[in-house]
Design brief:
The structure holds two protein chains of two kinds.
Chain A (H helix, E strand, L loop, with lengths): L1 H41 L8 H22 L8 H5 L2 H32 L13 H19 L1 H19 L1
Helix pairs in contact in A: 1-2, 2-5, 4-5
Chain B lengths: L1 H12 L4 H15 L8 H10 L6 H12 L4 H13 L5 H13 L6 H18 L4 H11 L10 H10 L3 H7 L1 H22 L9 H25 L6 H19 L5 H34 L2 H12 L3 H18 L2 H19 L3 H16 L6 H10 L3 H24 L1 H11 L2
Helix pairs in contact in B: 1-2, 2-14, 3-14, 4-13, 4-14, 5-6, 5-12, 6-7, 6-8, 6-11, 7-8, 7-19, 8-19, 8-20, 9-17, 9-18, 10-21, 11-20, 12-13, 14-17, 15-17, 16-17, 16-18, 17-18, 18-20, 20-21
The chains are: A mainly alpha, B mainly alpha.
């Protein structure tokens, strides 16, 4: 039992690490392209034709892959004053209901997101010339991943809190 | 409309994150009005909202701020502010106000400013005998200056949505920022006299020079940004790229404080902040689509022009609505939702778009720190572990001062416009 929960934790931590790396690589790449673009345009007087498009699409993928992590880090703020003041039983019911609503919404977005991507599969990116399917599917993937994070809200909350403490100790 | 409004208020009060509040109420609207065949617009509108080049300015500016925040930059800025204004009675509170102003040149958002300064300043002020609630409230209200000093995410988004010159908006924010800082300083001096808060030891001139040497690359950043976008040399996104590169050079070469671990943290933080802003934009874009189906902007304009044809009265009502929305929603959310209607009102009243934009952004910001539900108050209350009631009460007079500044810029467009006219032309 302890072993399997350890393994689960290892998988979850590797996943978090993977998502963090996507964020790092994504932001670093966007920043580098942006700087190179400025350099080309103002120093070499030769604009890059692909840089704008690549940055836009890269950022969209980074955002949707980071969505769940962002939720679990508690960065998506809400007005929780009222719910926190309810008696604990009622508050738990409201929180459960909230999560069900969010999950329902995300599943809908994921479903229609896939349909949207499929319908636009013959559209091509202007400069980069690949199917827009590969960009538009990001919504569906992101919504599904976010959904998993909402279902496992408490698990990820504890996990990230623990990891945060470790990082602070390392920083010392 | 009833479906959208009802679902919106219910889910908001349930404590659902605002991003989902917008999405869920849109979904309920489509189901309630029997338009489920139109649900394909959900991903379509989300994508349309995000696929804009100007938005890339957000991660790049955030990255610049995060990289700059290296080797105790917050501390250095506060020390510099302290070396100048700390010597009078209540010096520490003046340091908080002007340190926050300087910090605004690095961070483009009030929330970041409030969290960063709240953690550092409030314990310091408490040690000097300041009332902790007063200290927390002062930091919360001072943090409103961050989006007024360039770079400002709120101004960029307003400019992008309304097609207003982003450079002029960025420059226009400075004057109300300084006005707010001055009024807050007067209030802080008055409170210090009443409560007997101490002065800080006076620093010799050499200390001020040393502080300046420590911080000038940071203070220069807004100048580079405004200078860069001015006259269309750079677009806002390109200026943001230059800012990020500049921050990298300053942190790496000038402060020699850039480690791999720090860069890593800065980039993760940037990705997370960007994700939360982008998701909000995506969802708000669905709501805006519904507004356009329901002709909400036109309705709002016609209702307002039926109430009165007096410019000041209409602006007063607009300000009141924005203030209330700003209390409940995120700054960016309010901007996206209201700009279509606001632009209509601006045209009817023949207002300068920069003047209008400044008024709107400042107003929404005030809502951000207004009791009892302003998000900024919650951030400061939570990082300082103070009860929200006490902080709210202490913030009230300061919010009053911010409202005075708002009234001034609403009534006298020159306050908003003279600096952009002078610098940008």
């Amino acid at each position: 039992m302890a072993n399997s929960s350890q393994r689960l934790k290892w998988i979850a931590l590797s996943y978090i690490n993977f998502i963090e790396n996507i964020g790092i690589i994504g932001i670093a790449t966007v920043a580098c392209i942006a700087v190179v673009q400025v350099f080309y345009r103002y120093v070499l007087h030769d604009s890059l034709f692909w840089s704008e498009e690549l940055m836009r699409y890269l950022m969209i993928w980074v955002v949707f892959l980071m969505a769940g992590f962002t939720y679990s880090r508690g960065e998506l703020l809400g007005m929780s004053t009222l719910v926190e003041r309810l008696p604990s039983k009622l508050s738990r019911v409201v929180k459960l209901l909230s999560r069900l609503l969010i999950i329902g919404f995300l599943l809908t977005v994921s479903w229609y997101g896939a349909e949207f991507a499929w319908r636009t599969r013959y559209e091509e990116a202007i400069a980069l010339e690949f199917s827009m399917f590969w960009i538009h599917i990001a919504i569906s993937v992101g919504a599904l991943q976010l959904c998993i994070h909402v279902v496992l809200t408490d698990y990820f909350h504890d996990l990230l809190a623990e990891a945060g403490i470790e990082e602070k100790e390392l920083a010392k | 409309m009833i479906w959208l409004g009802g679902a919106f208020i219910t889910t908001l009060l349930m404590g659902i994150p605002i991003v989902f509040v917008l999405g869920i109420s849109a979904l309920i609207y489509f189901i309630g009005t029997d338009q489920t065949s139109a649900l394909l617009v959900l991903p379509q509108r989300m994508m349309a909202g995000l696929d804009q080049f100007i938005l890339l300015a957000i991660p790049l500016f955030v990255l610049a701020g995060n990289i700059m925040d290296v080797g105790g930059l917050t501390r250095r800025l506060l020390d510099f502010a302290n070396s100048i204004v700390g010597r009078v009675r209540g010096g520490m509170s003046l340091t908080a106000i002007w340190g926050s102003f300087l910090f605004g040149g690095v961070s483009g958002s009030a929330a970041a400013d409030a969290a960063a300064l709240g953690t550092v300043l409030v314990p310091d002020m408490q040690r000097q005998g300041y009332d902790p609630d007063y200290s927390a409230a002062l930091v919360a209200v001072s943090s409103l200056m961050a989006p007024l000093v360039p770079p400002s995410i709120a101004m960029i988004i307003y400019g992008a949505l309304s097609g207003t010159s982003i450079t002029r908006l960025l420059v226009a924010g400075l004057v109300p920022g300084v006005l707010l800082a001055l009024l807050l300083s007067i209030y802080a001096l008055y409170m210090a006299r009443r409560k007997g808060y101490p002065a800080m030891p006076a620093m010799p001139f050499s200390q001020i020079v040393r502080g300046l040497m420590n911080t000038w690359p940071v203070i220069l950043l807004p100048v580079i940004i405004v200078g860069g976008i001015r006259g269309g040399v750079f677009t806002a996104t390109e200026a943001a790229a230059v800012a990020a590169f500049y921050a990298f050079l300053v942190a790496g070469l000038y402060y020699r404080a850039l480690s791999w671990a720090h860069l890593r943290r800065a980039m993760i933080a940037t990705a997370v902040v960007t994700a939360s802003i982008y998701l909000l934009i995506a969802m708000a874009n669905i709501a805006v689509f519904i507004f356009s189906i329901e002709k909400i902007p036109q309705t709002v304009v016609s209702i307002l022009s039926n109430i009165s044809d007096n410019k000041i009265v209409i602006l007063l009502i607009v300000n009141l609505i924005l203030l209330i929305l700003g209390m409940f929603l995120d700054t960016i959310g309010v901007l996206i939702l209201t700009v279509p209607a606001i632009m209509g009102i601006g045209q009817t009243l023949e207002m300068d778009p920069v003047h209008l934009g400044l008024m709107v952004v400042f107003n929404v910001l005030i809502g951000f720190a207004t009791p009892p539900v302003g998000l900024c108050l919650f951030i400061v209350a939570s990082v300082t572990k103070r009860p929200i009631e006490g902080v709210s009460l202490a913030a009230l007079p300061m919010i009053g001062l911010a409202l005075i500044v708002l009234a001034l810029i609403t009534a006298f467009p020159q306050i908003a416009l003279f600096l952009p006219n002078l610098i940008v032309g």
